[in-house]
């Protein structure tokens, strides 16, 4: 199975059913699945979204490399490079979604329980965590993509 199929399968299993239940069945967006499921599903939904979008970025990057370096066999996507990119995409997605596991919690407003993100405790220790760290991670990922042919050529021969 390819990476994009796995990402879309994760979205179909972890995002759609619970969002459907929360938004359409209970139009006040109440959460009935408990605190553990709130944290776990926020984390899994984050992984699914990051994985789906970054898999498309990797596919686009591969197509760009194939067009730009058509006569350069050393720049082609090999099996080792593909495994490297799939593993890097999964690792990046899990790393980016990990804070969601920590900040997702049940809040009660007007007697209605909701699964929300509360970043105040994290912001107290790491100011700007919601903006600066994700921006740096995305920048790092783009650098990783651009350096991938050179890294895998030397590391995975």
UniProtKB/TrEMBL annotation:
Signal peptide: none annotated. One of its GO terms (molecular function) is neuropeptide receptor activity. Residues 1-157 form the G-protein coupled receptors family 1 profile domain. The chain crosses the membrane at residues 7-25, 31-61, 82-104. Belongs to the G-protein coupled receptor 1 family. The keyword Transmembrane helix applies. This is G-protein coupled receptors family 1 profile domain-containing protein. PROSITE patterns: G_PROTEIN_RECEP_F1_1, G_PROTEIN_RECEP_F1_2. PANTHER family: G-PROTEIN COUPLED RECEPTOR, NEUROPEPTIDE RECEPTOR 22. It is found in: Membrane. Keywords: G-protein coupled receptor, Membrane, Receptor, Transducer, Transmembrane, Transmembrane helix. It is a multi-pass membrane protein. It comes from Ancylostoma ceylanicum. InterPro entries: GPCR_Rhodpsn, GPCR_Rhodpsn_7TM. One of its GO terms (cellular component) is plasma membrane. The keyword Transmembrane applies. Its main location: membrane.
